[in-house]
Design brief:
The protein is built from 17 helices and 13 strands. It is α/β, with parallel strands linked by helices.
Length: 492
């Protein structure tokens, strides 16, 4: 009878775990769910044999992750990348396995640190080594809670991951010690103090400071990347090169017209989305000549995200930024470095380039580049005031991929202007306050306009980098090495 009762309890725990796991991250994420799912999994795994618990939990994480991130990595079910979210379930299941193996080797509240240290370490190591970058990291789920998000200005994304998972471990510890009031009080006092300090810091940081001023920025795109209009460009490039040159010239002219319109409406900086314009490599010089002329005549900074297509398929296409100043000079160029292993384009060097303007120090990166916190940190080190980020997304990653760039802005203390084709465009200040947004899928006119602050703020994270993540890794290793036998018999 006791065994049957425990079976029912385990089933309920796993159902709740699956529910909250599904909503903890991905397309339908809710901040609250990320704090809840570890509670039910830890409650289950700490009463199971280690390997059995790991296999069951890894399967649940794998299925939930695959569904929550469906079509995020790839549209093609025949591609390995399509199933990457499922494979990550087995990776992150390792954090629960480590907790199970070590939890009963330690006495008292210190045991609650094992799980958050393990999860944070896995989160960081995967994000650092994966060519996919940090998208999907647990901390991104908290983007709606602005005072909490301010923590990343110190610890980077990894402090959020630790705080979320430590909550689950702490609640489970309290659950295990319901008959010990002293342990409960101790747990609530320690964790409650830490989380309170985090919110106090966030609240103080969000207090408005005097601004140097703002600059009007307009972001535009002029076609739908994924409907029949958008697909015709790529098909023409394969089937009829001269026709491809003709129709992309029409697209370029349409984009220049929109640029002039926004400039005359008051924009001092005009930003085009990623893969806008598409241009045949042999026509690139003509396009740049016209761009220089318009920037000079309209007295604007013009940032283009050119996709230069080669007729010779042996040559790699180029996905790059070109910024022209009001004098008609090219003052910034940048090749995309994120995701090139999939796109097959020329890979950038990963250096963040800047240009000094009357509107502060400006930089630019392209879409997937923002998924790499360690590289984007250069912007904070170089005191960038405004980051311009043209992107190309699709419905399944809207708004999740926009959130990635949002966190980079808070980490490094710059204003962000992200113009997306087929996704969510966003303008924020250096602390993550949203100034303007435009969702491609819900708009008939694909223009984003905002008065963007021209003064960035210095952050601790831009100075110390991923120190918190490394502390987590070192602390976890020490807990593995220094583990001791627990006086009670292991429970399962």
């Amino acid at each position: 009878m006791k065994h049957k009762k425990q079976l029912y309890i385990n089933i309920v725990l796993l159902i709740l775990a699956a529910f909250f796991t599904f909503f903890s991250n991905g397309r339908w994420s809710f901040a609250f769910a990320a704090w809840m799912f570890p509670i039910f999994i830890l409650r289950f795994t700490r009463k199971q044999k280690p390997l059995k618990g790991y296999i069951i939990v890894a399967i649940i994480l794998s299925v939930c992750s695959q569904l929550a991130f469906l079509r995020f990595s790839s549209y093609n079910p025949k591609s390995f990348l399509f199933y990457l979210p499922a494979l990550l379930g087995f990776l992150y299941g390792g954090a629960f396995l480590l907790d199970r193996l070590l939890y009963y080797k330690y006495r008292g509240f210190i045991a609650t640190l094992i799980f958050p240290l393990a999860y944070t370490s896995i989160d960081y190591i995967y994000a650092s080594l994966s060519p996919m970058g940090s998208t999907g990291a647990l901390g991104y789920s908290q983007y709606r809670i602005l005072p909490l998000v301010q923590l990343v200005s110190i610890t980077g994304l990894w402090g959020l991951t630790f705080l979320i998972t430590w909550f689950g471990s702490t609640v489970t510890y309290i659950w295990d010690n319901l008959d010990n009031k002293n342990q409960i009080k101790k747990a609530i006092l320690i964790y409650g103090t830490i989380i309170s300090l985090v919110f106090v810091y966030g609240g103080i940081r969000l207090i408005k400071i005097p601004k140097k001023g703002t600059v009007r920025i307009a972001g535009i795109h002029t076609y739908d990347l994924r409907n029949s209009e958008g697909k015709q460009y790529w098909k023409a490039a394969e089937d009829d090169w001269e026709y491809f040159r003709e129709i992309t010239k029409e697209l370029q002219d349409k984009t220049f017209e929109a640029t002039i319109r926004e400039a005359r409406a008051g924009a001092k900086i005009v930003l085009w989305s990623e893969v806008l314009p598409i241009v045949a490599k042999e026509d690139e010089s003509k396009l740049l000549k016209k761009a220089k002329s318009i920037a000079r005549e309209e007295n604007i900074y013009l940032l283009m995200s050119l996709f230069s297509e080669h007729q010779d398929t042996k040559e790699k296409d180029e996905n790059k930024l070109i910024m022209v100043d009001p004098h008609g000079d090219i003052v910034l160029s940048h090749y995309k470095f994120g995701g090139n292993f999939i796109e097959g384009t020329v890979k950038g060097d990963g250096n963040i380039h800047t240009v000094d303007t009357p509107y502060g120090k400006i930089s630019g990166v392209i879409c997937w580049d923002q998924d790499f916190p360690r590289i984007i940190r250069q912007a904070g080190q170089k005191n960038v005031d405004i980051m311009l980020a043209p992107t190309a997304d699709w419905r399944e990653i809207d708004p999740l991929h926009t959130i990635v760039g949002y966190f980079r802005a808070v980490e490094n203390g710059y204003s962000l202007f992200r113009q997306s084709i087929n996704g969510l465009s966003l303008a924020t200040d250096p602390k993550g306050n949203i100034i303007a947004s435009m969702d491609h899928c819900q708009s008939s006119e694909w223009v984003t306009v905002a008065q963007v602050p021209i003064n960035g703020v210095k952050t601790i994270y831009s100075g110390i980098g991923d120190v918190f993540a490394w502390i987590s890794i070192i602390a976890l290793i020490l807990m593995i090495v220094l583990r001791k036998k627990y006086h009670k018999k292991d429970v399962y």
